[in-house]
Predict the 3D structure of the following.
Amino acid sequence: MSNQEGGRATTEERPVEQPPVVETPQPTTPLPPKQPIMQAAQPSQYPPYASQNYYPGPAQQPVYGPYYGPPYAPPHRRHIVWPWIVLAVFLTLTFTWLGGMAFGTIGFNFSGYPNSLTETPRHFAVSATPTVVINNDIGSIHVQSGGAGSAVTIQATKYAGPGSNVNDVQVSYTHNSAANTVTVNVDRTTNVTFFSSLRVDFEVTVPNNAALELKTSTGGLDVSGVSGRMSVRSNTGSVDLRDGVLSPGSTLNSNTSSIRFNGSISQTGSYRFMTNTGSINVTLPASSVFHLDATTDTGSITSDFPGVYVQHPTV
């Protein structure tokens, strides 16, 4: 006998197979091509002159660097030079103008004058003790005594250097009979340039007693044998007075040159001798009576008169 389980036989159930479903293809619409995605450019951390390799397309370009060699070397910095050019031109013009002024005013002391003109002497009838005023910026003045006469004689000589003409300077005369005064002025009709130099020298004859007012910028002043009140001034030239008697109120002044006086002074009044950088030499008769007040900044003071003592400041 054989053993049988469950007393009956069972039949295994199987799923029913379905026939395959065939899908019918549906009509499709072609899609548009993909558009490149544009991204905003980001600021690069590399300088614009760093070496870059370019790859076509929208993708971000790789940057290699920084590399500063040619041809991507940093551009040369432009230096702004025009202010220096303007300054150089300004300084050149300024020094040229100053040089022309100096050459035109004092340059005649060391340069020749191919052109010269001696004017006809001018004669002026005056009464006793006339006043003679001469303003001459570009030359010297020489005054001498003509004796006991009653006339003033003035003769001017003009000099013109290369690039100048004697007619570029004019001399004017004014005679005021009521005031017993003769006035002479020198005027330049053209501007002074580097290539021009002018000069006017005066020879003047006056009576023994006369008041003189003389002024020059570049020449010397020389007075001989004249007595009276003197007011003479030279900027760069020397002042020399001799053989005369100064009246009270006289002034002798030179800015950068020397002063020499050899004569007499009245027993009253004040007299001034002044210079900035030159020397002063005053010679008086031994019998002169005066009170001396003299000072100097850089020089020394000496005196041969007995009773005149020089006090030197102590350091």
Q: What stands out?
A: Confidence is low (pLDDT under 50) at residues 1-12, 103-112. Residues 8 and 96 are 143 Å apart (CA to CA). The helical segments are 82-105. The first strand starts at residue 115 and ends at 118.
